[in-house]
């Protein structure tokens, strides 16, 4: 699927989303949908579907201190004593909420509540707000994500969409997804050798994880995973339009022992 380049931030929430009940939630990433007019596309980075409500998540990997200024609709980031103005993500995700509502109506789905969230993936980032505090209910750190969704469960105790229609909605969203295909490395002038290679840890995002005894082990937080390589494979497919060979994967994943790739593929 197509998507933005902030993959480090976006997929750092996968660990926190793993605490959600599999039979209750359907999680989709990087959707690009044609709007209800059929004239323009809109992007949804992370969509969590459930029968009582839908959650939209836009993940930001900001560092330092970030100040949300509602009066002037801007975001001020302070790093190393320097200030810079960034686009306020709150109006953007509220706009995505409206676009998805119209898309659902155009495809004859019920008016299911939609809750937008701005998730800050860097736990050391300090969040400050000024102005109308009601808008800042949309902002949370990634570690709070499961609890935030639990609060939505309490807020919306009644199912709006049936389990059958929920599966149909998920399938339709994937069917209607229209990735924007272009060579990312060429577009941003990045040489392949500049990319950090290896499998990243789904929990702390350290690179690389070490392969051993059928699992990936993080040398930083000691988290173990049998399928941590899956997202790295998605990254490879995202960056390279090429026929991927075993030798390439072994090099990218830093695997040197014969037969280490066999259990993965």
TrEMBL record:
Per the UniProt entry, what species is this protein from, by scientific name?
A: Siminovitchia acidinfaciens
Chain ranges of the NERD domain: 5-123
Q: Which Pfam families match?
A: NERD
Q: What is this protein called?
A: NERD domain-containing protein
């Amino acid at each position: 699927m197509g998507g933005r380049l902030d993959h480090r931030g976006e997929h750092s929430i996968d660990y926190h989303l793993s605490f959600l009940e599999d039979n209750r939630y359907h999680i989709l990433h990087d959707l690009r949908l044609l709007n209800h007019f059929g004239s323009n596309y809109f992007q949804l980075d992370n969509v969590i579907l459930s029968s009582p409500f839908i959650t939209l998540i836009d993940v930001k990997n900001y560092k330092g201190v970030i100040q949300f200024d509602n009066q002037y609709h801007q975001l001020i980031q302070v790093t190393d004593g320097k200030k810079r103005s960034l686009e306020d993500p709150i109006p953007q995700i509220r706009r995505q909420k409206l676009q998805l509502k119209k898309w659902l109506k155009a495809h004859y789905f019920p008016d299911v509540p939609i809750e937008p969230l701005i998730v800050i993936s860097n736990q050391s980032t300090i969040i400050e707000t000024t102005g109308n505090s009601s808008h800042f209910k949309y902002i949370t750190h990634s570690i709070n994500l499961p609890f935030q969704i639990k609060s939505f469960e309490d807020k919306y105790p009644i199912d709006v969409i049936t389990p059958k229609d929920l599966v149909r909605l998920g399938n339709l969203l994937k069917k209607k997804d229209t990735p924007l295909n272009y060579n990312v490395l060429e577009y941003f002038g990045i040489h392949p050798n500049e990319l950090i290679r290896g499998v990243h840890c789904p929990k702390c995002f350290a690179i690389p994880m070490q392969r051993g005894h059928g699992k990936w082990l993080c040398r930083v937080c000691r988290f173990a995973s049998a399928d941590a390589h899956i997202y790295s494979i998605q990254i490879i497919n995202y960056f390279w339009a090429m026929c991927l060979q075993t030798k390439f994967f072994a090099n990218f994943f830093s695997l040197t022992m014969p037969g280490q790739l066999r259990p993965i593929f």
